[in-house]
Amino acid sequence: MIIALADLGDADVQALIAFHQQAMQAGSPPGLSFALDLSGLADPVVSVWAVRVDDRVAAIGALKLLGGGQAELKSMRTHPDFLRRGIAAQLLEAIIDHARSQAITRLSLETGGGPAFDPALALYRKRGFVNGAAFGDYVLTDFNQCLHLTLV
């Protein structure tokens, strides 16, 4: 397994990004999916990683710098062929390590609720993320929730 900054021009990376965005839109009430598309992930304040296993893109994840020592975890997605292998947990650790190296003191994320989101929520909570207040432009709803991890 290799975790490295992603080449957003790579067709396999683009396909997993598109799959993630489609799944988030399909599994969220109208107007409550905030998954970034390829152009959003290309923003200079966003870093995107890809995990490769046997030369296949197994997962992606991104970190968006928010300023003031804060950053947002974005676009975490494991390809269906690679689920339940611990890949997402290793990718999450790599992103957290990078955040620390950038002097980030709080890492936040916004996600949905319900069965489709339970595996991701379990991963984040196991790593120490806790539910909290909305951040940025997000608004908490019956569907959306925000989680935070203090980095020291």
UniProtKB/TrEMBL annotation:
SUPFAM superfamilies: Acyl-CoA N-acyltransferases (Nat) (SSF55729). It is an enzyme of class 2 (transferase). GO terms for molecular function: acyltransferase activity, transferring groups other than amino-acyl groups. Keywords: Acyltransferase, Transferase. Gene3D superfamilies: 3.40.630.30. Transmembrane segments: none annotated. InterPro entries: Acyl_CoA_acyltransferase (IPR016181), Bact_Acetyltransf (IPR050832), GNAT_dom (IPR000182). Its EC number is 2.3.1.-. The keyword Transport does not apply. Residues 3-152 form the N-acetyltransferase domain. The keyword Transferase applies. Pfam families: Acetyltransf_1. This is Acetyltransferase. It comes from Erythrobacter ramosus.
